[in-house]
Amino acid sequence: MQPIEQTITEITGLLQEQGSQDYYGEPVSQLEHMLQCALLAERAGSDNETIIAAFLHDIGHLLPAESAAGYMDGYGRSDHEQLGGDWLRQRGFSEKIVSLVENHVNAKRYLTFKSPAYYERLSEASRKTLEYQGGRMTADEAYAFEHNIQFGGILQVRRWDEQAKVPGLKTPDAQHYIQKCERHLKKRKL
What we know:
The protein is mostly helical. It contains twelve helices and no strands. It has helices at residues 4-18, 30-43, 48-56, 59-62, 80-90, 95-102, 104-114, 116-121, 124-132, 139-145, 151-163, 174-189. Helix 1 (4-18) runs antiparallel to helix 12, helix 3 runs parallel beside helix 6 (95-102) and helix 7 (104-114) crosses helix 10 (139-145). The chain is globular, with a radius of gyration of 16 Å. It starts with a helix and ends with a helix. The mean pLDDT is 90. This is HD domain-containing protein.
C-alpha cells in the first residue's frame, strides 16, 4: 500500500487533469457528476464510506488508458467500475467503498432487468453504455446480485449516479470530499 499523501495527490491530479472533460453524453463534466453524486449521498445522511464511494464511483474513467481497447464508442471505458475498484483497493480504501464502486454498473443492469420503467428513465447515454456493459441481467445474475452484502447501498449509489447530471448545480468543492478520503485512509492505518 502506498503512502496516503501519494494517493491524495493522485486523486487531486486526476481531477485536475480529467475532471473538466464532458461526462460522456451528459450536460455536466466528469467532476460535476462526481461532486453531485457525493452531495446526494451527503444529503441522504449516508456514512462517510458511502459518500466517498459516491464521489469516486467513476474514478476508473479518469485513470490513464493503456490502450484504446475497452472503450464504449465515445462513452468512456466499458470496465471503468472494475478498474476503479481495483485502483481504490490497491490504495487502501475499504472493501465497502470498493464494492459500491465495482458494482454500480451491475446495479444498472439489475434495475433495468427488474423494472422496465427504470430503463425508460435512463438518459440516452446511459442506455447506450448499458449495451456495452452486458445489457440487462439474466434472472440468475439478478438472484446472485441480490445476495451481495452491500446490495442496498449499491442500488442507492446507482440512483444517485443517474440523478447527478444537473447543469450548474451548486456543490461543495472537490477538496471537501478529498479530505473525507484522506481521513478515511488515515483511520484505516491506525
